Every structure is written in C-alpha cells, then in structure tokens.
Amino acid sequence: MVRKAKRGFMRRGKILNTPAIRRMPTYLHKLLKMRLEGKVSVSSTELAEYMNIELIVVRKDIALTGISGQRRVGYDINELIRYIKNYLGWQDTISATLIGAGSLGSALLGYDDFNHYGFGIESVFDADPSKIGKEIRGREVFDIATLESRLKNSPPEVAVICVSSAAAQQVADKLVAIGIKYIWNFANVALQVPPGVVVQREVIAGGLAMLGVRMKLDREHDTGVAFD
Amino acid sequence: MVRKAKRGFMRRGKILNTPAIRRMPTYLHKLLKMRLEGKVSVSSTELAEYMNIELIVVRKDIALTGISGQRRVGYDINELIRYIKNYLGWQDTISATLIGAGSLGSALLGYDDFNHYGFGIESVFDADPSKIGKEIRGREVFDIATLESRLKNSPPEVAVICVSSAAAQQVADKLVAIGIKYIWNFANVALQVPPGVVVQREVIAGGLAMLGVRMKLDREHDTGVAFD
DNA sequence: TGCAAATAGATATTTTTTTATCTTTTTATT
DNA sequence: AATAAAAAGATAAAAAAATATCTATTTGCA
After folding, report:
1. Burial (CB count <10 Å: 0-12, 13-18, 19+), residue A179
2. Which among B22, B158, B208 is the nearest to A117, CB-wise?
3. A5 CA: nearest nucleotide by C1'
C-alpha cells in the first residue's frame, strides 16, 4: 500500500556514496605504492585482500570512478589512480591554509600523502606569540591577526582548522568573512556557518567509539561479526 | 573476514550502527559542555540544531542508548551522558599505550576529552633515539625495544599506532605478540593481523576526499544538497 | 479547565549501502 | 583447439540508515 509523502523527497540523484568516498584514499595510497614497486595492473581481489573488505565492495567502489577494467587481468594502475583522483576532485591542486600550528597542525603539515593528493597548504596561522614568526616544518607561522589582510585578496579554497575547540568558532567566522567556502574542521565543535559554506568535520573520537562498542560486544559474547 | 554464504544469508545477531556510533562522541562533548554550564536537561531539537543534522536522526541515536526521556521536556543531561558512555563501552577506563611520539601522537596525548571518555594512555614508546628518555606532555618516552618487557605482564587493552606507515606493520606484529587485541591505527596502511585482533583505522584523508567530491559537485552545478 | 504547542516514542517508508549471484570475457594450460 | 579459471561487469536481493508520519504525553497559558 503506497502512502503518498506529503511533500515528497528531494531526489539527490545518488551522487554521494560517503563510505565509498572515504575508502578511496586507501585504494589510492596502495596504488601509489604498487606503482612505485613497478606494478602496472591490479585486480580487485588484490585490493580487497589488502583492505580486508569484501571483493564486491571494491568492485562497486571502482565502478563508481567510471573506469573500465580488463577481464581476467584487472585495472591499469596508472589509469585507476587517475580515475580515483578525478572522482575525488583531486586532479588539480587544492590550495589551503592551516589555522593552528599545534601538534595536530604540525602532523598535518608533515602528512606526506597530501603531496600526492594535490592538497597544498600554502600558509599557516596561529595566535600563540611563542609560535608566530617561527618555522614549523619549513613554513613560517603568521599571526592570525594578519589572516584577513594576507588572504582576502586571493583566499585559498580550503581552510583547515586545528585550533582549540574554544577558539574554533571565532576562527571559522573570520574564514567565512574572507570568503572561504570549504572548511576542514579538526576542532571538537560543530561549527555554525552560513548556508553555502561547507564544513567537513573530523571527529577523532569516532574511532574510539567504534573500538569501545566492539570491546563491549566482545566482552558480552564473542561473535564473528565484522566491523569497520 | 571471509564470510561466505553460498545461498540465503546469515543473520547478524548484533547490529552495529556505525554512523550513529560515530556521532555519539559529538553528543557527549556537547552534553559535557552543557552540564558545565549548569543545564540539567536537553531536547533532541537542541542537539539537532547544534549538530546541523535532522531531528529524527538525533532521536534515533538517543533511542539506541536505551534512555527514556520526558515528553515535552527532553532528557536529563547527566543520565544521557551515562547512557551514551555505557552504550559506547566507556563506563570504565580503557587502558592504552601509544606507539609513536611524533606530532600526531603528541596531539593525541594532549586531547583533553580522552579524560572524560575514560581513555587512559599509560605509556608512550618510540624508536627515535632523540625522543627516547625525553618527556612529551608529561610522559616519559620509552624505547620501543623495551615494549615487550614493559608491557607483556599486563598489557593495556588498546594500542594506538602513530608511527610512519613504513613502520606500522612491524609495530602491529609486536603488539599482537604481547597479546594486544585492539589497535587504533592512525598510520596510512591496512594492517594485517590475525583473526580476533581488532583494528580500528583512522583514515585522515577520508575527510579530504569528502571535501574534494563536494567541491567538484559544486563546480559542476550548484545544489543545495547537504552532505556529511 | 481546556487548548495549543513542544516533545518523546512508535511505526512506516524510502534511500543508501552492502552482499549475493549470474554472465561475459580473457588468459593460461593441457 | 578445447577447457578451466580468474576476473570484470551486470543484475538482484538484503541489510542498514535515514526520513517521514503518526501518537501520546506533558507543560504553559488563555
């Protein structure tokens, strides 16, 4: 029996497969490594074994990128790298600024894969006088008070927030003010931003939550249930 | 991991609602803050507005914890905190060791919320001679060569891997050898571990992938589609 | 008192994601 | 050349997650 929805659904056109998108960098990392090792093709079986996930998931994910493989052989590694990057919008370099030069910010600056992913952090800001003017991983740390004047003329596409949760909203407001539309937020707060501004939030403790639940389940009775 | 059902299907006794579990720490963080501010009850409406997600999602998530709310009022904050912690298996302290005292490891050591979440990093190991013996965030860094002798008698429940991707598998092998069953892996590799050992992997670039896809979609045609 | 509004709780439906199964192609082997 | 096996590709089904809708309860207020 069909019951008519009052206002119907906004069809999204099936564009954002979140879990699949999140798996892509892992494929990419492995593929880049395989390419360095001189390999030229890869099967979904191989990737599934590496990732410890079901073969069919890998095939579906790869299909999302639109690539064609060769039966009985697999996919051309170079081509697959290109297709994944393209699917993720990583074909050209994404310009970024980092706000917060603490240990997390420093870790991100040192994250080698960003080079391969075309993610370029071009400037670093902090409010801590003991950090301003110093270099972190080869980049000068600017006073956050100068953020507007330094960036407003050609703001980067993305801002990465690595400040304390107490300071994050204030930082976000500044970023919005200079026209930044994409924020990657590592602070432990849900930022309030105007419509049109996209916030991608990283909740570090999310993984700990998964671990906790799994430990609890194991304690209760051991099951062979897979989880991610 | 290979779960082969020739025909029909296997019923999973337990359900793991991954997205819901990952949202829990965010609720928890907000609730802890509200409690500090002296609030005693909270409605799902309030939490939904804070999180920028649908009200009904919040209600479903809260229902998972098994708490009962009061109609027209909401949930008792203290009680909800307790229920969420319990749902996540965070009611007692989880003992942990950290391998890798670089900037990411340091960031985790400084992550205040872990205290509230009952996650206790009790020891820190590194292979870098320039770090061994030094203190990081008040903790002495031990030589990873001493990992076995120091931990084998009473291994912590969880090990956090914050070493380079090149070293991660080797570290994981050591951890498995001393009987650690839960690994929280921040290195950019899929670790190979024996059955029974649980690896929770944090893929930092996953969020960047989401951002990239969103930017691409916006470029192609501006839509008002929400995403996470 | 009675009504409106806010909210939890329950149920139903839709959409998304994962998993299963079937089909085709290609390669290696006998 | 025939055959078997490995892999992609296609289709179908099931499970998981999100969303919509309905119901009951409580509170504040006219």
Report:
1. exposed
2. B208
3. D20
Measured distance between the N- and C-terminal CA atoms of chain A, rounded to whole angstroms: 36
- The segments of chain A whose pLDDT lies below 70 read 1-14, 221-228
Span B143-169, mean pLDDT?
97
In one letter, which amino acid is B9?
A: F
Q: What is the pLDDT of residue B220?
A: 82
Report CA(B218)–C1'(D14) in Å, whole number: 33
CB B110 to CB A89 under 8 A?
A: no
Average pLDDT over residues B217-222: 80
A129, A133, A126: which is closest to A103 by C-alpha?
A: A126
Torsion angles phi and psi, residue B76, rounded to 5: -70, 125
Pick the closest to residue A94 from B215, B55, B179 (CA basis).
Answer: B215
- Using a cut of 0.70, tell me whether the model's pTM lies above it: yes
Task: Check if residue A43 sits with its Cβ under 7 angstroms from strand D.
Answer: yes
DSSP of chain B: -----SSS-PPPSS---HHHHHHHHHHHHHHHHHHHTT--EE-HHHHHHHHTS-HHHHHHHHHHHT---BTTTBEEHHHHHHHHHHHHT-SSPEEEEEE--SHHHHHHHT-THHHHHTEEEEEEEES-TTTTTSEETTEEEEEGGGHHHHHSSS--SEEEE-S-HHHHHHHHHHHHHTT--EEEE-SSS-----TT-EEEE--THHHHHHHHHHHHHHHH--------
* Cβ-Cβ contacts under 8 Å, A213 against chain B: 16, 21, 87-89
What digits encode the pLDDT tens for the residues A72-120?
A: 999 999 999 999 999 999 999 999 999 999 999 999 999 999 999 999 9
Q: Using a 7 Å cut-off to protein CB atoms, list the covered nucleotides of chain D.
A: 5-10, 14-22, 24-27
For residues A193 and A29, give the distance between their C-alpha atoms in angstroms, rounded to a whole number.
32
Q: What are phi and psi of B96, to 5 degrees?
A: -145, 160
